[in-house]
Design a protein that fits this description.
The chain contains 15 helices and no strands. The chain is mainly alpha-helical.
Amino acid sequence: MNFRSIVNNIEALAPLSDTTQIVRGLYEDGAENVNIAKLVKAIETDAALTVNILKMINSPLYGFSKQINSISQAVTLFGTQTVYGLVVRYSIESLIIANLRPYGLSNNKFNDICHMQSALMSQWYAKINLKDAQFLAPLALIMESGKLVVAQEVVHSSSIKEFISGLKKASNISEYENNIFGTSSYYVSGLLFEHWHLDTLYVDTLKGLDFEHDGASKQDNYIDALDVVRTAVNVTDIFTEESINDAADIVLSMGLDVLRFKSICIGLKEIYIKNKS
């Protein structure tokens, strides 16, 4: 298990689906300039993609009491950025069929975690900066994608038990991954998105997530926001008291409202527990 092997596996991956390539092309001039009619049409020509987007977007975590029955509705309610994230996420899942046992997860639970991260980002950051939240929510949805590649590497090396054992003892997931592979799964996500020619800001933000920064740039603000979300909910801690408090410490260091953040976390946790009961 090593970094070079992971890079080789990424380089061998097929391109994103034709539909995803078409959708990505619509975003070349920025999400605010996307032709909505063309976006809806492109998605609706792919029946499987349409069904899966509607399934994902009707999750109770997103807080809509009424069923969303069309892609047009989804774009209107969630915006073009979130829909783009959903398109990319489905395409990634179609290309990387991973056994997530190394992280102690079923595919369904992994999906839940990704959606909770996105929902938390959306609900929390929208009151801070709506435009930034519209960029960050879809990135939060797909930032764990590198774990699919890392899990494949662990399975292929027949080291599942050893990896699980070490993960349980680790105090920091990224540090543990780095000790094993020489990189973190978030950096791997950045490499994935670079391989597929996704937004360079997505790539650079994820590559920088586990490196020190001075907080002076917009990208640094994005890194801090993603760090908050992945601390509160991740593959080992889903809105635990400790993980919420640790995330709140980062929120405090950002000079933001801690009580509001904790309230959103508790609300999402209650929805998650209710949905699983």
